[in-house]
Design goal:
The chain has 4 helices and 6 strands; from the N terminus they run E-E-E-H-E-H-H-E-E-H. The chain has helices at about 40-50, 60-70, 70-80, 115-119, and strands at about 1-10, 15-20, 25-35, 55-60, 85-90, 95-100. It has a 6-stranded mixed sheet. It is globular. It starts with a strand and ends with a helix.
């Protein structure tokens, strides 16, 4: 069973959503950008790069994905092993994973004290 939490730690590292797979202590960080453009997405990528986690995923609109999929931004996403989930819809959102995040070996819980405090 996995827990999903919105986390902001005293270390000033802030993630939109963190998923913790309890049995394996696997952390998955999601950075959600609802109004991203190809020009503004680089800031989200640098933020994701700085997170201590086993998986890192960028969540963007389907339209934004189509704008970046053949660009240097997509090359950066691939280089750093960042996954992509797209969303569409207004009243009813639909999500689709279009790029799987690479697994990073390690235990990162010590970097997220608020998760440790709730366990």
């Amino acid at each position: 069973m996995s827990e999903v939490k919105c986390i902001s730690d005293a270390s000033s590292i802030q993630a939109d959503v963190i998923s913790l797979k309890s049995k394996s202590n696997t952390l998955h960080v999601y950075e959600i950008k609802t109004n991203a453009t190809p020009k503004t997405i680089n800031a989200a990528l640098w933020q994701l790069k700085g997170f201590y986690s086993n998986y890192k995923t960028l969540v963007i609109s389907k339209e934004t994905y189509y704008q970046i999929r053949n660009s240097s931004v997509f090359e950066t996403i691939t280089k750093y092993g960042i996954g992509i989930i797209t969303f569409t819809g207004g009243d009813k959102l639909t999500f689709k994973r279009v790029k799987r995040a690479n697994y990073r070996e390690g235990t990162y819980l010590e970097h997220w004290p608020s998760i440790l405090a709730e366990r």
